[in-house]
Amino acid sequence: MKLITRINLILGATFALGLLLVGVNSYLLTEDNALRQVTDQAELIMQEALAVRSYTVNELRPLLNQNNDGKFHPQTVPAYSATQIANLVQQTRPNYSYREAVFNPTNPRDKATPMEEQIINQFIANPALGKLVGRQEISGVKSLYISYPIRITNPKCLACHSEPENAPAAMRAIYGDEGGFGWQLNEVVGTQMVVVPYTLPAELARKTFISFLLSMAVIFLIIFLVINIVIRKLVLKPVSQITRLADEASKGNLRNAEIKVTGNDEIADMLRAFNRMRRSIIKIVQMMKRMQAQAKANVKAKP
Question: Is there a smaller number of Cβ atoms within 10 Å at the N or the C end of the chain?
Fold first, then answer.
């Protein structure tokens, strides 16, 4: 096997291993960045929903309650306001959603699905759990969700959710007296849940990964070619010249020109040393030829 073939095999194996390590690391980084991007989006939507709830309680509810018209205004309920605004956003972003799902809701639309019930049960089983993050597939779209527990911490909430007779009659006239009652203080009754699509960030991460991997492959290929050119020019070419001249010298052909030497590196020093050795061999050969010629002349001169 030629030296250049061995060198190429070593370089190829080294570059392949390096590309593999870089590829695995870059894949993990792009996946992590995609997940972080989606999580940030979900957190932003969740914080916006919480802001709407706070705005409803602190500013909207007092204004509507000043009417004293004896009617129940759903707009005064924080969950209703946050959900309505989320539904408006969902008209242009159908894969983004916000829900307040409850085991026993006042509004039937807030009834928890089986999957949401599992999340609520996790919050109930672990009171210290403040947030859940997970993945799911909705209508073929890979999504990420963030879920917070709905815990009754404000005693004022029980005015509408303890016993049906304590709730406003106007509210019961709209929603009836079957759902949304029997809640207890500090009880987890549901979950606030934001769902955002994971497909687009994952696709962007995949394209970024492929682009990066192709770039690294091109860089490795260029380095491979440059190293090959350098080795051929600086190492293999001088070695080939030495081999050719040494082979010619072994056959008695010493008439070829010396190797032209430039530079001051180790290869140049080796070539100079070879030229000196070759000159020494030529001198020895010439000296031996003169001695042989002198010996023949002496033999002929004898009587």
Answer: C
C-alpha to C-alpha distance for 146 and 135, rounded to whole angstroms: 9
Choose among 31, 71, 74, 38: nearest CA to 56.
Answer: 74
pLDDT for 301 equals 66
Q: Residue 191: its pLDDT value, please?
A: 93
What are the DSSP calls for 139-202, one per residue? TTEEEEEEEEEEE---GGGHHHHS-GGGS-HHHHHHH-SSSS----TT-EEEEEEEEEE-HHHH
Which of 106-120, 162-176, 187-201, 241-255 bottoms out in mean pLDDT, i.e. has the lowest?
241-255
CA dihedral 117, 38, 107, 184 (to 10 degrees): 50
What is the H or E stretch that residue 95 is in? Answer: none
The single residue listed with the structure tokens 């969902």 is 90
On the 0-12 / 13-18 / 19+ scale of CB atoms within 10 A, 201 is: buried
| Contact assessment for residue 100 and residue 150, using Cβ atoms and an 8 Å cutoff | yes
Q: Which domains does the chain have, with CATH numbers?
A: 3-202 (no CATH), 208-301 (1.10.287)
Each residue of 239-251: pLDDT tens digit? Answer: 787 777 777 777 6
Q: Does the predicted TM-score (pTM) go above 0.90?
A: no
Contact 86, 44 (CB under 8 A): no
The average pLDDT across 205-228 equals 87
Task: For residue 17, give the amino acid letter.
Answer: L
Average pLDDT for 38-58: 86
- Please report which confidence band the pLDDT of residue 120 belongs to, taking 50, 70 and 90 as the band edges: very high
